[in-house]
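=== RUN LOG ===
request id: a7f3
mode: sequence -> structure
chains: 1
length: 283
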Amino acid sequence: MSLHLQLPNELLFKVLAHVLAYSVHMVVVSPGDIEWHLRVHHTLSARQLQYLRSLGVAIRDPSALGNFSIGSLDSTAPQLVQGYSLYIAIVYLRTQASRSTAEIYHSTSATIFGAVVTLSKVLYSRIVPREVSVMLKFATEDEAELSHVGILVVRQCAMLSGCVDALTDELDPADEAAGLRRDLNRLKAEQMIGNIDAADVTFLALFRRSVPLPCCTAIWLSQLPDVYATLQRVYDVVSQRSLISEDAVTQLRSLVERWAPPPPPALPSATETSTGETGAAAG
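=== RESULT ===
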């Protein structure tokens, strides 16, 4: 009788598949040392992992985004490698769209959704064993949720701007229809502010996942096209006039404060500059 502990074959298979899935995922998304992950399993060639690593730089390093070409993806690679290549393309497209206009962001979202469907419905079924794609599956689902949250925030901000502009119009007190429209716009504006705040909660929950989620760390909701500028403008308007409820104003103020861009680094004072020059001269 053997004295060595042995796992049942099915459990051993599950453990090894999970380790492999995690390592392949980390090769793509982790900005840190991945030497162990590169060597974790010899069934994937070093060439394929290095290929994924080179593609993954487009989503690990925002400054390298312009160097990525979707046309360079290898359609002859193993299904798992193709799946990760498509995942990288999805993240790349959404990050690029996030840096453009609201119109481009919306149009690109349709392309991204199609790619997510292709990845989840087609490529997953071809990856064998299925367990090695579990990290890719989770990452794709998170990416789909991030895309949904981003689209919601950009769209709600655009609609919120229109509602608040309508609320500022002067109305004839005798015009009952106009009064009803104003009440409806007020309710819509308050609901949109609540929707944007809820989207921020969802985004932060995704951001705090233990495994890196590249698009979360590259683009915050406040950096999406026209988002922060719209919220700031709307807050400046509603905080001076009783256009919406106090609770909604408070909620909006909290969003503006949380999403405010960090201040630029302070320039050294004249005293600090002269002190540094004196020290350098003395050295």
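=== NOTES ===
DSSP finds eleven helices and no strands in the chain.
Residues 174 and 180 are 11 Å apart (CA to CA).
=== END ===
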